[in-house]
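Example (one chain per record):
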Amino acid sequence: MSNDDKLIDFSAERGKRIHDLHDKKLDEMRQAFEQALPLPKGKKSSKGKSKKR
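Predicted structure:
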């Protein structure tokens, strides 16, 4: 094994690839929720009454 500089750490590469896949799924889910339930921009209002006991 004279080519030590060309060794690949497969666990690290797999970790990066898995992380990218999770990010892609998260982005897809976020876009789907934004289309289904769009958030109001710049408008903050509290809905419902505050409960007093």
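Caption: Residues 9-36 form one domain.
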